[in-house]
């Protein structure tokens, strides 16, 4: 039983989980005038939402599974997200090599026709048949033709963080390193107990509870709320490997594997190629998911089967794994379980104090999923505002005139910095970069250079405004500099962060 002393705050909605679905719901709800608190036990996007293939896509292969609702919604969201976050979401061409012994050409043409016409396209190009130029084709000589279609890529972790920034600007409280350890319906309110990483406990009251705990969604229902989960959960691990750049063109490949799965090869951060993903049933602790050596070999095998350039396991620069948290639909193969999301609702005997739980979902559909949760919440909060997220940009996309324009402006103001750094800033922060630069007119005013192209001013901003607490948060989620830095740079960053927190403690 929760004790009622020490209740410090009263909210309309408490959201458990700071992945894309939790922050999406918190942003939407706070923008409609609801008082929102979001708690995340680790860092924002620390789990599935930073381990994705980083695509905003309809999911061509879901057509084969008959998931037309999901594909239709996802295709439409591409255009919405391109408008909302043009600094984070970018169109990308996908090349699908055709080999007759895999899916027949007529089947692929039908799939691409549906992909082109299932939803309105404003900026993305139509699919087409292509022949590869033997002089530039990075694929093996016998692969001579294929199809090309358009989807988008995204910086997944930054999409999460910018939603959290928007939620905070709407008045939401965002607590990272804070776990929901219990929640109980009382007379007229939920009492939610939160514990931070210093073992401090606080209790808050709210009228509605949202469980967006991803791979922990069923555990939260059973262990923290003491109810039965409406679905049993299947955790399906998906892993990626990062290889040195295999080809220089700025398009992705989608390969069909002999097991009927598809594998992407995606240009990544100018220097690398990202290869993924796998589908592997997962039964261990979701906090400690990491790539299995069979997955590395599987991905290398597909890459080596298609590309001329061959790679061995010791050439893998980095890898990461995430868990799809899917509502069990009794499919035997992990790859065929539906990727569509389910939103469940439980209420008390007076039809009050709702608990919404989110099963599954995609980065691509987070905004629509959030809207659906808010539509259902409307029954409990009749005074709340209408839907608003479709036409509102995310932080950094205000006064947006394109990446080139912003890079130009940054370089004009700070001629000493490299164009690559200006581009990284423009793509990460959009027009919020001016908040980081704070009127600086030369690089000395940005403070110490803690590592190549990482100034203290950027770190200060990430700590003050983006909930970064340690070097991992900064190097792997707020930026992707972790791929470039070695132990010396990381130690300098850790040292700087320690000096910042001792300064805060003294003040
Ligand atoms: C390999 C892979 C590739 C993918 N590729 C794509 C893609 O290209 N495009 C796409 O659209 N989708 C993709 N997806 C799907 C997408 O990544 C997920 O649907 C999405 O990230 C799920 O977000 P979430 O918020 O539900 O879960 P998560 O991101 O896991 O967030 C849940 C959060 O809840 C927190 N939490 C848990 N319990 C508690 C508690 N008690 N108190 C406080 N916090 C708690 C966790 O720490 C976690 O951060 C991919 C998924 C995988 C696994």
From TrEMBL:
<protein>
    <recommendedName>
        <fullName>Glycerol-3-phosphate dehydrogenase</fullName>
        <ecNumber>1.1.5.3</ecNumber>
    </recommendedName>
</protein>
<dbReference type="InterPro" id="IPR038299">
    <property type="entry name" value="DAO_C_sf"/>
</dbReference>
<comment type="similarity">
    <text>Belongs to the FAD-dependent glycerol-3-phosphate dehydrogenase family.</text>
</comment>
<dbReference type="InterPro" id="IPR000447">
    <property type="entry name" value="G3P_DH_FAD-dep"/>
</dbReference>
<feature type="domain" description="Alpha-glycerophosphate oxidase C-terminal">
    <location>
        <begin position="388"/>
        <end position="483"/>
    </location>
</feature>
<dbReference type="InterPro" id="IPR006076">
    <property type="entry name" value="FAD-dep_OxRdtase"/>
</dbReference>
<dbReference type="InterPro" id="IPR031656">
    <property type="entry name" value="DAO_C"/>
</dbReference>
<dbReference type="GO" id="GO:0046168">
    <property type="term" value="P:glycerol-3-phosphate catabolic process"/>
</dbReference>
<dbReference type="Pfam" id="PF16901">
    <property type="entry name" value="DAO_C"/>
</dbReference>
<dbReference type="Pfam" id="PF01266">
    <property type="entry name" value="DAO"/>
</dbReference>
<feature type="domain" description="FAD dependent oxidoreductase">
    <location>
        <begin position="12"/>
        <end position="329"/>
    </location>
</feature>
<dbReference type="InterPro" id="IPR036188">
    <property type="entry name" value="FAD/NAD-bd_sf"/>
</dbReference>
<keyword id="KW-0274">FAD</keyword>
<keyword id="KW-0560">Oxidoreductase</keyword>
<keyword id="KW-0285">Flavoprotein</keyword>
<dbReference type="GO" id="GO:0004368">
    <property type="term" value="F:glycerol-3-phosphate dehydrogenase (quinone) activity"/>
</dbReference>
<dbReference type="GO" id="GO:0009331">
    <property type="term" value="C:glycerol-3-phosphate dehydrogenase (FAD) complex"/>
</dbReference>
């Amino acid at each position: 039983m929760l004790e009622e002393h020490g209740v410090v705050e009263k909210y309309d909605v408490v959201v458990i989980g700071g992945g894309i679905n939790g922050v999406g719901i918190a942003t939407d709800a706070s923008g409609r005038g609801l008082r929102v608190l979001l708690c995340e036990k680790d860092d924002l996007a620390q789990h599935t939402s930073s381990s994705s293939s980083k695509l905003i896509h309809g999911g061509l292969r879901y057509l084969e599974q008959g998931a037309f609702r999901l594909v239709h919604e996802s295709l439409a969201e591409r255009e919405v997200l391109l408008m909302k976050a043009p600094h984070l979401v970018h169109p990308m061409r996908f090349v699908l090599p055709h080999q007759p012994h895999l899916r027949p050409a007529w089947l692929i043409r039908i799939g691409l026709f549906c992909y082109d016409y299932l939803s309105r396209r404003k900026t993305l190009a139509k699919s087409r048949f292509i022949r590869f130029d033997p002089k530039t084709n990075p694929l093996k000589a016998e692969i001579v033709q294929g199809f090309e279609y358009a989807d988008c890529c995204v910086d997944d972790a930054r999409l999460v963080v910018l939603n959290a920034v928007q939620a905070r600007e709407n008045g939401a409280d965002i607590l990272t390193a804070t776990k929901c350890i219990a929640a109980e319906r009382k007379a007229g309110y939920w009492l939610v107990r939160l514990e931070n990483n210093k073992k401090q406990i606080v209790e808050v009251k709210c009228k509605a509870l949202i469980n967006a705990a991803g791979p922990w969604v069923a555990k939260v229902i059973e262990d923290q709320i003491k109810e039965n989960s409406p679905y049993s959960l299947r955790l399906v691990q998906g892993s990626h490997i990062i290889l040195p750049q295999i080809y220089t063109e700025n398009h992705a490949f989608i390969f069909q594997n002999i097991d009927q799965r598809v594998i992407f090869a995606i240009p990544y951060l100018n220097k690398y190629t990202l290869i993924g993903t796998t589908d592997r049933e997962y039964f261990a602790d979701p906090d400690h998911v990491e790539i299995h050596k069979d997955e590395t070999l599987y991905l290398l095998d597909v890459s080596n089967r298609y590309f001329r350039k061959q790679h061995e396991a010791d050439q893998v620069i980095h890898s990461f794994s995430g868990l799809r948290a899917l509502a069990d639909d009794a499919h035997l193969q992990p790859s065929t379980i539906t990727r569509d999301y389910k939103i469940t609702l439980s209420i008390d005997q007076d039809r009050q104090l709702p608990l919404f739980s989110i099963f599954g979902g995609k980065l691509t559909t987070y905004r629509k999923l959030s809207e659906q949760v808010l539509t259902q919440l409307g029954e409990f909060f009749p005074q709340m505002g209408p839907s608003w997220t479709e036409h509102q940009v995310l932080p950094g996309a205000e006064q947006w005139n394109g990446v080139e324009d912003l890079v130009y402006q940054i370089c004009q103001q700070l001629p000493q910095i490299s164009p690559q750094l200006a581009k990284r800033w423009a793509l990460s922060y959009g027009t919020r970069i001016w908040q980081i630069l704070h009127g600086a007119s030369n690089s000395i005013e940005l403070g110490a250079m803690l590592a190549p192209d990482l100034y203290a001013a950027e770190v200060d901003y990430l700590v003050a405004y983006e909930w970064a607490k340690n070097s991992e948060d900064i190097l792997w989620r707020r930026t992707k500099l972790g791929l470039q830095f070695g132990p010396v740079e990381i130690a300098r960053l850790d040292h700087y962060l320690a000096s910042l927190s001792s300064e805060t403690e003294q003040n």
